[in-house]
């Protein structure tokens, strides 16, 4: 029996050629203790059996809605994912929902995943963007943490309070959209984060950033995205060293650094929001000096103090 939430949530899943994993995501979604009011799955021009799997699911579960987009010729991560996500957004009225989730099609979800996220949101009116943590299989086939930071919801699962999502203006159509959004939340006075607990641990069947041509290509893109979002070289160097000690050893960290350096040498585009860049660079500097966890605690404390001082409507 599904738990009936006091508020409704919408899920949008952009996917392409996910025949290997999408059925697992469907099976674990329909087994949720709290079902979505609507789940829009955007098939971004799949060339495998994905459309057939989605058709069968939609016929069985009335809350699933399928949108098919034309084949763009190849998987397009970053801006391509957001284009597909936005196509799903255009098919619904966001004002009909209280929460919104961008969810990948290569995940296994614990049964209380969305119930737990909603409970956290309803207890904390300043919490705008939340997720659990992803776990991947290492070389020994053991499920291990993907080691994503606590300061943001993970890119594979972005659970938003609709008011917060509107406040930040949605997602940026560039690589690192899933890092920029969390910092924009803080800039706008919302708390963003991800928690690691049993009911929020997701099985990620494809490692973060490897969906296009593999881990190396994904990490190069990750590094280029860090350049676009405004990260300093010193911060990316530290992040690259951190990532060198996860599976596959060295490859991921070196790829991030190479991607950043190549974008820097090309003098590529950088995110142009001055207020965001000023805030973001202070945040990264603080993370280097006193640690990411302490920096996050300090910022969350400031957000709560400011909301109380201004008698923020969210606290009413």
What is the percent of helical residues?
40-55%
Number of helices: 11
Number of strands: 11
Mean pLDDT score = 92
What's the structural domain tally? 2
Strand order of the largest sheet: 3-2-1-4-9-6-10
Write the CATH fold name of the largest domain.
Spore Coat Polysaccharide Biosynthesis Protein SpsA, Chain A
Overall CATH architecture of the largest domain: Alpha-Beta Complex
Write down the CATH class of the largest domain: Alpha Beta
Radius of gyration: 19 Å
Proportion of strand residues:
15-25%
Termini distance?
33 Å
**Main pleated-sheet profile:** 7 strands, mixed
Inertia-based shape: globular
Q: What is the CATH superfamily label of the largest domain?
A: Spore Coat Polysaccharide Biosynthesis Protein SpsA, Chain A
H and E order: EHEHEHEEHEEEEHHEEHHHHH
Structural class: alpha/beta
Question: Which parts are unreliable, with pLDDT below 50 for 5 consecutive residues or more?
Answer: none
Question: Key terms for this structure?
Answer:
four-stranded mixed beta sheet, 11 helices, 17% strand, 43% helix, 11 strands, 316 residues, globular, alpha/beta
Please describe what this structure looks like.
This protein has 316 residues and is of the alpha/beta class. It folds into 2 domains: 9-204, Spore Coat Polysaccharide Biosynthesis Protein SpsA, Chain A, CATH 3.90.550.10; 215-265. The chain is built from 11 helices and 11 strands. The strands form 2 sheets. The chain has a 7-stranded mixed beta sheet, sandwiched between helices. A hairpin with a 5-residue loop joins strand 7 (133-137) and strand 8. It is globular and about 55 Å long.
